[in-house]
Write a structure and sequence with these properties.
It is a single chain. β1, α1 and β2 form a beta-alpha-beta unit. The chain is an alpha/beta fold. The chain contains 10 helices and 10 strands. The protein has one domain: Spore Coat Polysaccharide Biosynthesis Protein SpsA, Chain A.
Length: 272
């Protein structure tokens, strides 16, 4: 049984460390890599298929023809992995490997060591000396964290780390509906878990694990303009979940199917 790792990719042709990904999957057959091409305009898709050819049984490529954002791209990968019988847990990590494989494997180990846990996620605020941010992002991170803490009402230090892994049975709760935000969907993940598990119980089912290494990689898809708009986008999320009670949570079922609405009319192809 395997852990599926989703890697959303948008114009990553020049940044993808293909050798690192292929080397990892060759050495770790209890994992499956699912790359999601999010409507890239460069040769990202070609690079992904090249990796798949090297490990056809352990690498999949989901091609979303139009750029839909990280939230929908991750959800597209989840929809594919959830219905694979060999997958017991599903996570995602960033294509730039800002979180390394060793840290991600430690997250998976923690999840599988405790049946009560539904989600284990990395934290860049409590880790080792390998945590590196540029000055602007460090300031913005502290400001954003205050907004997020107000919205969640949960003692989580780092919601936005791009390394998370989920038990398969919680997937329908987290990913059953399309997300409000293209990029801040991590906040929505915790809001959904809080509503389903309850404010008092949710912290017993999630675990924030320090990363030993995390490095911001230049050429981020989120620029200064996007960062300045984050408070407004967080307010939109709070409005949707608190005022309008967006999420209609139901218990997971064997017949669970992730809907197509996340990509609308966009063509989706999968190289399984």
């Amino acid at each position: 049984m395997k852990t599926g790792i989703i890697i959303p990719c948008y114009n990553e042709e020049k940044r993808l460390d293909t050798e690192a990904f292929v080397s990892f999957i060759k050495a770790n057959y209890n994992y499956h890599l699912c790359f999601v091409n999010d409507g890239s305009k460069d040769n990202t898709l070609k690079v992904l298929h090249s990796m798949k050819q090297q490990q056809p049984h352990n690498i999949s490529v989901v091609d979303v023809k139009r750029n839909v954002g990280k939230a929908a791209a991750v959800r597209a990968g989840v929809r594919y992995l959830y219905h694979r019988s060999d997958i017991i847990s599903i996570g995602f990590m960033d294509a730039d490997l800002s979180t390394d494989f060793k840290d991600f494997k430690d997250l998976v180990k923690t999840l599988h060591s405790n049946e009560q846990l539904s989600v284990v996620f990395g934290s860049r605020n409590t880790g080792g000396n390998g945590i590196k941010r540029d000055a602007f992002r460090n300031v913005m991170s502290k400001m954003i964290k205050k907004f997020i803490l107000m919205i969640l009402g949960l003692p989580i230090r780092d919601t936005q780390c791009g390394a998370k892994v989920f038990s398969k049975n919680i997937v329908p709760i987290v990913y059953g509906e399309a997300f409000e935000s293209r990029w801040l969907f991590d906040v929505e993940i915790f809001l959904r878990l809080k509503k389903y598990l309850g404010k008092k119980a949710v912290m017993n089912h999630i675990f924030e694990q320090p990363l030993m290494r995390w490095v911001h990689v230049e050429d981020s898809k989120l620029g200064m303009k996007d960062s300045l708009l984050i408070p407004m986008r967080l307010f939109k999320i709070w409005t949707a979940y608190s005022l309008f009670q967006k999420l209609n949570v139901a218990a997971p079922s064997d017949g669970f199917v992730l809907e197509q609405e996340m990509i609308g009319k966009t063509q989706l192809s999968i190289a399984a």
